[in-house]
Amino acid sequence: MPLYNSQTLKIYNSLSGEKETFTPIHEGNVGMYVCGPTVYSNVHLGNVRTFMSFDVIFRYFLHLDYKVRYVRNITDVGHIVDDVDEGEDKIAKKARLEQLEPMEVVQRYTVDFHDILTAFNFLPPSIEPTATGHIIEQIEIIKTIIDKGIGYEANGSVYFDVVKFNETNHYGRLSGRNIEDMLANTRDLDGQSDKRNPQDFALWKKAEPQHIMRWPSPWSDGFPGWHLECTAMSTKYLGNHFDIHGGGMDLKFPHHECEIAQNEACTGQTPVNYWMHANMLTLNGKKMAKSTGNNILPREILTGDNGILSKAFSASVARFFMLQAHYRSILDFSDDAIVAAEKGYKRLMEALEALKELVPNSNATLDIASWKQSCYHAMNDDFNTPILIAQLFEGVRFINLLKEGKETLTSADLKTFSATMQAFVFDVLGLENEKISDSNNDKLEGTVNMLIEMRKQARDNKNFALSDQIRDQLITLGIQLKDAKEGTTFTI
């Protein structure tokens, strides 16, 4: 019997604002679409947190024996700067600034995206479609919307008529907005726009002569609107009505609101049963921003090459840190927080190693069945990873009591206990056991610090040849020195 038959999963639905019991459209199957990255720059840490949330959700569905089709797209055209309908495509702008072909930009940052997610032990999605690979489908959707009287062409561009749509539907239902309020709070169009209403959004944009990325259409040589691609790809691979649509909280409006409108205009039915949104990540209590320097890339966490953290941290430690907060909560990233997470991660891994050495007894003094179900209760409550981690540390306490002989487990209970710990730590949370050896780490750190001191003495004596030799030979061993006012540190 599949495991999902014995577990009642509740999901917070952004559409209703409530936790709802998950009932798939097709028994035993889950269709899930998550908005992927716009590949015009290195993937940032907030992206990683969002995709990690849905990676865990994907993993838990698989653990419950569901057959899952997980679709996560790549936006490689159509995402306008500042997420409005006027301006330059983000990828085209990057290509112009770096004097590259747009697809060179796309390739560079798609590779970076995949490398980072692999480093953080993400499972690949079932399908990873691109916007440029679905231009034909997007054009066909636009034709249907125009035929329904909800889309209109103006000077080679095509727009979605929000006011017309709202006569029979509710635009703003997901984000809690009211169309009348939106219209009342928007300045009048000054005649320079082709839109009939300020809230109308682009389905197709006519390309200016200098615009590099363009495709032929019945209306003009141009490119699709950003919102349209997800409608085209989600419905192509999951159908007009599917189970889950996810993304970051910042996509709720206008992106997801526009997706709903497009789907309903085309098919006459609501496209998604459960809308899920992951919350944002802050850094040292402030919004991450390259312009202020309050920013760190995922790769910089792994290398330690940054001015924010005291040292490098492994991907599993960073993953463990992020999963200590619920996906709908704001999470603040800081050096103190990830240092504390590293200690907890080590405790968990050491306990799992100790678990392998435990010997069964003829009697059981611990209620493993209740503890096991408490782990499921945590994940069944809208994928509550911090509560699950708390239960796993209750398991760590059990292991210590068993080691000390203060509690006992039968062979069957010990097998269940071990299998449950392994399943939730590795299969569901996606952590990896890096088998950190503290004694070896201490020896390495002592040796490198001794060489750093020797290099400092060489520099003080103006023996720069020896100083450079120490630095360069450490680099060949994969150890990079970093000089700062406070002193020299190293990363591996």
UniProtKB/TrEMBL annotation:
Keywords: Aminoacyl-tRNA synthetase, ATP-binding, Cytoplasm, Ligase, Metal-binding, Nucleotide-binding, Protein biosynthesis, Zinc. A motif ('KMSKS' region) lies at residues 287-291. Binds 1 zinc ion per subunit. Pfam families: DALR_2, tRNA-synt_1e. Zn(2+) binds at C35, C230, H255, E259. It is found in: Cytoplasm. Its EC number is 6.1.1.16. CDD domains: CysRS_core. Monomer. Belongs to the class-I aminoacyl-tRNA synthetase family. PANTHER family: CYSTEINE--TRNA LIGASE, CYTOPLASMIC, CYSTEINYL-TRNA SYNTHETASE. This is Cysteine--tRNA ligase. It comes from Flavobacterium xylosi. The gene is cysS.
